[in-house]
Design goal:
Shape of chain A: globular
CATH architecture of the largest domain in chain A: 2-Layer Sandwich
Strand content of chain A: 15-25%
Low-confidence stretches of chain A: none
Largest sheet of chain A: 8 strands, antiparallel
CATH topology of the largest domain in chain A: Creatine Kinase, Chain A, domain 2
Number of strands of chain A: 10
Oligomer: homodimer
Order of helices and strands of chain A: EHHEHHEEEHEEEHHEEHHHHH
Structural class of chain A: alpha+beta
Number of helices of chain A: 12
Largest interface: A-B, 19 and 19 residues
Number of domains of chain A: 2
């Protein structure tokens, strides 16, 4: 099953507003009417659920999709999928009665918190396109599967916070100028009032290394899918505007200091012999800031270094790159991977 | 008098043991019998002293030497001479009744603390050669000048600490490994017992930026010149041995950490947009350490970058390089000068 290693990084490539919105993600939570939720189901039932999807849902059997039972994968393959954001940490670390259906930038976790977690990712701010694609996928699945649905509540889910649309729309935002000027705090306050939530880049509970923030809808009930998406577009439009304005202000007021800071970050990344993931992320984000604002010349750096390295500096990706390295040398390999990409 | 700007940096070029001893310096304090010491002499007398040397000492009139009255120079020219270590800070900043006789790496201050301060500098550990040259110079001057000399005490000087030989022999040492391992403290203790003294790199009272230390003899009385020089050679031999041993030990035990530190220093120097003199010196010293120990590949960096930049990052040199820059832009020009030399 070595082809799991060959999946593309879903964050690389063109995308609108990439200076502020690194990537967009939509996921739908869906459950079958005739089975217990995964956390209530025993092992036998979970396997029946997998069997049901594999044999009854036509799209999952098409040549475009890979249907993988999670226990067919070794640890490093699961970590790779996790680091590429195709599966959750829990789905990577708990094997039994779980599966994954995957194609390019669409991944469907089977028996995660819900029977299905359908997810699509792309670079930049791209919800309309993603929504169209994931809707199509959802329709194709629903053609062959009877979803748990209530006329009053909408789609039923394992956790009440997802009931209704089962929809989570999120954007990974890079907000160095709002962070540096301290204006982010006010903006985050506003975000809360619009039913949105903010997390660090590596998911729940993580800190905001590299000034990266995941902004997503909190509420799934009482609003239509398009309302949720429109709401996020509107808030993100505001954030993009404010971030860009703050960047310009910073550069006008402290050009030399900021230029020095972003260039030094590039220098350290190009010359370090070993580097921790956290520090690398911070410095890469500074270089991205310099690149997007023109303080670092475009010719001095490869396009898409950030989206590429955001994934490729993570531990399992380094393991695959270097084969059988010990924990200590991971930091040395990480420096090498960064150097190779930046030069 | 713009040719003052064209003097070579006396620290550049080949020299023995340059990995530890950056440069060697010898100076002699001499006074004329028939005049008061400079600090006791009035303006008229100071000018008579200058007049005496200019007209009676043959070597000072030879084509090889430039005879300059300090008030003929503008401030930037005097600062340049000071930054190249040809004159003292006091000689640069106080004009009246002072002169300088200079040729390549020999400089003679007239009416500094003593009537004559004859000084010679060269890269590396080089006392024997320097002593031969300065001795020859001293003889040539003495042929035409009646030195203040006592059979009992030796050469008489303005300050009692220089009486006897009037000789100060000093070496600028780069001791990063002894500093890092904390072993320097013991060694400095020993140095004191041998009548030597240690100062920071930029002269009296300065701190040891970049792990650079000036080691020189304290005592000028009761020992012959050759004894003083032999004593310094012997102590420096010990320090060089200990420093090299510590470097090897550090590299054996902490190769990756040290390599990372020196390479990052190079990265920052190559990419900074602005940099203070103090930070630049620290980073350059780290790069020198990496260069001398082979942790930074010789092909990646120009030979003699350290001795070159040690002088060329100083304010007056930057002023000459860039012409009429304000204080704030000095740090930007400094980064440019460093980049140009390192690339």
């Amino acid at each position: 099953m070595s082809n799991v290693k060959q999946f593309n990084n879903p964050l690389t490539g063109e995308g609108p507003e990439k200076d502020v919105v690194v990537s967009s993600r939509i996921r739908l939570a869906r459950n079958l009417k005739k089975f217990l939720f995964p956390n209530k189901a025993d092992r036998k039932t979970r396997n029946e659920i997998i069997y049901f999807f594999k044999n009854n849902v036509e799209i999952f059997s098409s040549d475009d999709y890979m249907f993988i039972k999670m226990n067919q994968l070794d640890n490093i393959e699961k970590e790779l999928l996790y680091e590429k954001n195709f599966i959750s940490a829990e789905h990577a670390r708990k094997n039994i009665g779980r599966a994954l259906v995957i194609n390019d930038n669409i991944s469907v976790m089977v028996n995660e918190e819900d029977h299905l977690r359908i997810q699509i990712i792309s670079p930049g701010l791209n919800f309309n396109e993603l929504w169209e694609k994931i809707g199509l996928m959802d329709d194709k699945i629903e053609k062959d599967a009877d979803y748990a649905f209530s006329e009053k509540l909408g789609y039923l889910t394992s956790c009440p916070t997802n009931v209704g649309t089962g929809l989570r729309v999120s954007a990974m935002c890079h907000l160095p100028a709002l962070t540096l000027t301290g204006r982010l705090k006010n903006i985050l306050g506003v975000i809360g009032k619009f039913g949105l939530t903010v997390r660090g880049v590596y998911g729940e509970g993580s800190s905001s290394s590299g000034d990266l923030y995941q902004i997503s809808n909190q509420i799934t009930l009482g609003h239509s899918e398009t309302e949720i998406i429109e709401n996020l577009y509107s808030i993100l439009g505001h954030i993009i505007y404010e971030e860009r304005k703050s960047r310009q202000l910073l550069i006008n007021n402290e050009h030399d200091k900021i230029k020095d800071s972003v260039q030094r970050s590039l220098g350290i990344l190009k010359y370090s012999h070993q580097i921790e993931e956290e520090e690398a992320l911070k410095l890469l984000a500074k270089v991205k800031f310099g690149y997007d604002t023109g303080l670092i010349e475009k010719k001095d750096i490869r396009y898409d270094f950030f989206a590429d390295l955001l994934i490729n500096i993570r531990p399992a990706h380094l393991q695959i790159y270097a084969e059988n390295i010990d924990e200590e040398n991971l930091n040395i390999i990480r420096s090498e991977v960064i150097r190779n990409k930046l030069i």
